[in-house]
Amino acid sequence: MVHSEAMPELVAEAMDSMRKGKAYRQEQGQEVDPLPPSSFLALSGGGDDGAFGAGLTVWLEQGGGST
User: Residue 24: which region, alpha, beta or left (left: phi > 0; alpha: psi -120 to 50)?
Assistant: First the structure.
């Protein structure tokens, strides 16, 4: 498990998103439970050696951003 000071805020944001998703689906007359799968991406700043720098490097190495 990752320990971070930001973790409670991330969990609260995810729970709020689920609540809004369920309310919207209910308004539309759709099945509320279970919600469709969701993906969340959280990146740290961390400078050149942080998650963003590492992910950007791999993405570029795999041809990301090329046209």
Answer: alpha
Coil/strand/helix, residue 66: coil
Residue position matching structure tokens 């498990």: 1
pLDDT, tens digit (0-9, with 9 covering 90-100), for 15-32: 898 899 899 999 999 988
- Residue spans per domain, the chain: 7-61
Q: Please count the residues of the chain.
A: 67
pTM for the whole structure = 0.48
Q: How far is CA 48 from CA 25, 32, 43, 58, in A?
A: 41, 42, 13, 13
